[in-house]
Structures are given as C-alpha cells and as structure tokens.
What does this fold into?
Amino acid sequence: MIARSGLLAAAIATAIAWGAPCRAADAGAAAAPEARESLAGPKLDALLTDIAKARKGMKTLRAAFTQERRIRLLSTSVKSRGELSFGAGERLRWDLAPPDDVVYFIGPEGLSYKTKSSTATVPARGANVARALGDLRALLTGDLTSLRDRYTLAASRGERDVEVSGIAKDKGASVKSFTLVLDRSLVVPLRSTLIEGKNDRIDLVFSNVVVDGPIDPARLRP
It folds into this structure.
C-alpha cells in the first residue's frame, strides 16, 4: 500500500537497490566498481546493531530527495521531488512537490495524506497497516533487525558507505525486495530502491541531509 502510494515510502518509505559508487583508476581509464566487503553472519549482526545504536541517538532528520517510479506494465516512469522529515516521537512526513502535490504523514494514528482538495487517514489498528508502518520507520530511521521476520537481510561495506538489502520471505508480499545505502555515519541515507509487484521499481536519491536540526513538531502531524 505504501509503495503504491509513492512513498517508498511511505513509505516507509524505503528493492532499495542502489548501485555502488565507482571511481576511475586514472583519467584515461574506464571507471571500475568499488571493492566491497560482503557482510554475513556475525559481521551482519554487528552492522545492524551499530546502525540501531547510531539511529537511537537521532532526534530529527530532514532530507531532500528525488524519486523515480518505474512501472513495468505501462513501460513508463514517473519522476518526482520532495522532502523527508522525521522526529517528534517516531513521526515521519513525506512531501511530494507538484505535479504530485501530496503530503503523507506516518504516526501512531496510522498513515494520512493531504492534497489541496482532500485528506484521509488509514488507521494503524489493522495488522497489515501496522506492519507496513513499522517496516517503513525501521527502514528509514529505526532498527533494521525488526525486518528479519519478513525479509532475508544481507549487507556490504565500501570505503564510503554501507548497503543493507532484503528479500521478502513471503512470495505474496507487496514489496519484494529493498536496498538501503547509508554513509559511514550509519545515519545519513544516500540512495534507496524498492521492488514491488511485478518488478515495478521506486528509486530514491537523498541530498541535503540534516541530522538533529530544528523541525517544528506541528509539521509532522496531519
């Protein structure tokens, strides 16, 4: 539901399959993929623990993003720009600029959206909605180990970033797989991709990320 709404997100957000950065060996040579260390077993556990610790101390997060949704059935893609805001007791706001011109809110009451002409809220009482909201928050700002019940997780580390990916255990899941790339602080998101349905894809690229900057709590409520 969240992926179909254009979030990622929203949501949550949130495969988040990103290409690894590349570097040129020299000015005349073709760029070669950056060497990455695959993390499994205890190394994967340690990384997930480190990400949870780094995020636990985060009070707010704000970032601009570009979003490209590729719809296989229609052989088309839709590009959008927006802003992510997080804080005030696990609340997340996802703004999509015109022509989308919609704002999504995720909080204890559920998933809400607001346009120029309408507003609505999907309560978090239902198990599926609650699970989707929890997954989105975990992916972008929370404890990634909470996703292990529904996704098989993997990770890799490069010189400048870490990548966490997940493949859904349930073949009927709406989000089939994801990947998330964080910088070395383990807090700042860099890129993200969700694969949903029959290989529909949402790519997100984040920029101008501000951690623990001022955010008006009122902006995070519908």
